[in-house]
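Bumping with the actual sequence this time:
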Amino acid sequence: SLLTSTNKLIEYSQLHDLDLGSMSYQTMKRVLSQLNKYVMLKRLFLARSERVDFVDLSGQQANSLSQLLELDLTSCTLDFSESNQQQHYFLNNSRSLQRLSLNNVTGLTGERFAAYFNLALFPNLTHLDLSNNRLFSFSVPAYSPLSNSLEHLLLVNCQLASVRFDSPLESLVSLDLSDNNLTISSSMYSVSYTRTRNVRLSR
């Protein structure tokens, strides 16, 4: 089976879905050490795992995730070391990615998000959840690929004092800015620059 031998892991090269959220630390580490063999992987769920800081999201393991559509890293720990960032952006070969959850990622700040995740690398991203992180500010730059793809953006409880959309989000369906430090003027400026009709500013 998937959990008993490395030889068996190689047989799962056609695997599309992998959920490791409830596995033990040692089992998960063993499985993910073979991540480069899952070349057809579409969905990877690591939510609520105690630690995934050993996952190489910027090197050879990440290069195998070119078919990935959904990645859930909710409540995980990532490697934000300076040496890792100098090598590559996280997920730099996952242009097919459509859904990304970074809800409550340990140590994730707005500065680290900008440094490690280049949203220009995800032109097909439709769902982005950055809730429950200390972002302080969030912006979508002009001419961003997200202006045509992003449909759902969750920024709940991010201690936001400012948000800015320099590209109109043409496809946005829902925007959740609740539980932040936004003033009416700053939040309404940003909301007016999106096309969404489903906006949440408070709970």
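The tokens above came from a reply further down the thread. The longest helix spans residues 184-192.
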